[in-house]
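Subject: two folds for Thursday's group meeting

Dear M.,

Sorry for the delay on this. The cluster queue was jammed most of the week, so I only got both jobs back this morning. I'm pasting them in the order they finished. Each block is the input sequence followed by the predicted C-alpha cells. Could you check whether the formatting survives your parser before we put anything on slides? The first protein is the one we discussed after the seminar.
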Amino acid sequence: MTRKIITDRQILKGHTEIHPALDFYNGKAIVAVGRPGLTTYEDKSNTCEQYSICITSDGDFFILSIKEILDRKLYYLKDLDLPSERWEIEDQEQFLEQLRNGNKTKFDFKKTHQEIRELFVELFDFQDEKLYDFFSCFIIYTYFFPLFESAPVVHLWGPAGSGKTKIMEMLGLMAFNPVTSGNITEASVFRLVEGRRAVCLLDESEDLSKTERGHAITNLILNGYRRGNLIYRMDKVGKVIQSSHYDVYSPKVIANITGLDKEALLSRAIRVTTNSSRNAAKANKYTVEIKDKADAIRNKLYRACLTRFEDVRHAMNTMPRIGLVGRSAEIWQGVLSIAWLVNDKAWHNLSWLAIENSKSLERELLVSNPIWDLFSALLYMVDNIKPKFYSNNQIWNCINKHAEGEFISKQQVTGLLKQQGIPQRIKWIDKKTTRGFVLNKEQLESKLSVLADFITPQKSHLKNSQSLHLLTDEGQK
C-alpha cells in the first residue's frame, strides 16, 4: 500500500461543522442519502458505486466530497455509511425541482401523522389508544432529533407474542435510517449509529447485563441519549489496537421480556407495555403488506426535515410545559413538540401519556431507592414518641433484619444517614465510646414523605382538557 505524502496543512477558518447524514445549521437543513452512481477512470473503465448525495433546504444538490463541503464553508469528521433507497430517487428530483421553481409545498404534520396512525391501527390492537399517537409522533420526530439536546430510549416491554418485533418492523420501515443490532457486532453498531445518525432498534435485548456484548450495547444506550456524549473504545485496526471515539447520539428502541434492570436505563426510558392482540385479523397482518404506503410516507418525512425544521424548533421553545421535570422533560420534549404541531387530540393524548409514564417509572425507581429502603427499615426500631440514641450496631442489626441483602456494610448505612443530614453522635455507654445516631419516628416519616412527594402521580381524576391546562405554566400562574 502506497503511503500518501502530506504536502500542506491548513487551519480552517469560518467553517461550520455538520453531520451530512442529518443536520440543522445556520438556518438551513441538510440530509444525505445513498444513491447508485457510475465512476469512470482515466483508462476509460467504469464501475458502479454508491455515492452519498447531499440535499439542502435551499435546493442545493451535490455528491458529498471534501471539496464540495469546504466550498460551502462547511466540514465534517464522520465516516458516512448510508442506506440506499430510503428516499425514492424520483421523489428527490421532484422535490428539488419544486424548490428551484419556488414551489415550497409545506409538509402537513396533521395529515402525515394521520396516515402513520392509520397504519398502526390497521396492524395493531393497542389497549391504550394513546399509543397510536405516540408511535406516529415518534416516527416523525426521528427526522428532527438533532434539534434536541436529548433523545429517549423507548422500551417495548411485554411477553412473547405481544407484538414487540412487529412494532420494530414498523419503525424499521418509516423511522430515520434505522439500524438493528440483531445480527451485527457491537463495534459495527457504534460505527453505523454514528455514520448514519441512525435510530437504533435493539430487538430481543435480554442480555444487557449478562454478556460483554450486552455491556457494550448498554454503554451505547446510556451515552447516546444526550447530544455531545462520546463513547471511547479500543478497536483493532489490522494488527494494531487503537483508541477510537464515537458519537452515538440518537433515539434508541429496546424490546425485551425481562425489562430494564439498571436504574440509569430506566431514567432515560419511555416504557411501552405490549399485549397480545385480541383481534385475529390485525394479528395476522404483516408489515410487508403496507410497505408501499410506508415508502410514500418516508418520502414525505425526508421532505419534512428539509422544510419544517424551523416550525419544530419553534414548537420546542413555545409549547406548554406539563409538569415534567429533569430527565423526564428532556426525553419527552421531542415527541411532544411533534404532537403540538399535529393537533389538540395528539397533544392531549401524549401529554397524559408522558405524565403517566414518567410517574410510573419514578415510582419503580423509588422501589429500589436505598434511602427509601433504609428509612423504611429503621421505622421498625425507632421510638414512637421522642428522639433516642441508637448505636451503629443497633442500626445495623435492624437493617439486617428488615432489609436483608439490601446493604453490604455498616459503613454504607452510616454514610447514607450522614448524606441525608443526620449527624453521627458519640456517647459514653458501658464505659466506652459508642457511635450512633439520634432518631425518632417523626423524623424518618418526614424523610420518606419528601421522597414520596417527588413521585406522587398527578390526580387520576384530571382527565379533561381543563385539568390538563392546570398542569401547564399558564394554569400554574
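Second protein, same layout:
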Amino acid sequence: MTPPEISVATWRQLWRETSDKVADPVETRWLLEEASGLDASDLLRDLDQSPDLASIARLGRLLERRLSGEPLQHVLGHWGFRTLDVVVDSRALVPRPETELVVEFALFELDRLAFAHSDGELWAADLGTGSGVIALSLVAERDTVRVVATDCDQAALELAATNLSALSSDVAERVQLVEGDWYRALPAGLRGRLGLVVSNPPYLAEREWAGLDANVRDFDPFGALVAGPSGLEAIEAVVTGAPAVLCSDGSLVVEIAPDQAKEALELASDAGYSTARVEDDLVGRPRVLVARR
C-alpha cells in the first residue's frame, strides 16, 4: 500500500491534512505527537514551524497503518492505562477503560484488607495478566502489595515483562511473572494466603468471534477474548478456584460481559463466597464481579 501523500509545509498544514484523512481530532493530535516526538504543548507551540523530513516520513507510515484499519493503540505502539504508559501490540489485548474500573475495585478491596491486616504486605494474584496492566497498576498505586501475575501465553508474558521493566526497580520487584494456566501457575506457598485474586479473563462465546469489529478480530488475540462455547468457561475457572487460595477475608474481582451478571453471581454463590455483587461500568452496564470469602 502506498503511503498517503503529505506535502512538506508547516505542522499546522500537516495537522489539517491528517485531520481530513482520519476525521477524528483526538486521533489527529496523537498521531502528530507520535510523529514529531513532541508533547501536546510543544506541538501547539511549533505549529507554524516546518517539520523535518524524518517526521513527515514517520507520519506517513503511521497514517498508512491507521487507514488500513490497524487499531490506533497498535499504530502508536503504546497506550495510557491509569498512571501507566504501556507498550501494546498483538500479543495481548489493548487495555480498555472497563479494565481500569476493575483495578479501581481491586484497589478498594486491597485497602479494606490493609486496614484489617496492618502488620505486613498483602499478596495478590492477577490471573491471565496479558500486557500486565492490572498487576502493574496495583503495585504502582499501592506500596504494600506484591503480585503474582500469571498467563499461559509466553508471548503475552514477554510483553508484560517489557512493561514491567519500565517501572522503577523498587516497584517492579514486587511483581512476579509466572507462565501457567490459572491457579496451577501459583506458587504453592501462596495458597490460602492471597488477599486478592483479580482477573480480566476471556469471556466471549465462540459464536461471537465472527461478529466482532475487524479492528478487534484481526489484531487482538483470539485466546484472550474467547473462552469457549458458552463464554463462561474462564470466569467459572477463576470464580470457583479462588476460595482455595484466598485468605479467610480475601476478595475476588473479575471483569465480565454485561449479559453474564446473573451467571457470575450464581457461580459465586455456589462457590461459597459470603458476599457477591456486580458493579456497573462507566456507561451503566454490569461489568465487575466483586466477591468476598
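Two things I noticed about the second structure. The mean pLDDT is 93. Residues 11-68 form one domain.

Cheers,
T.
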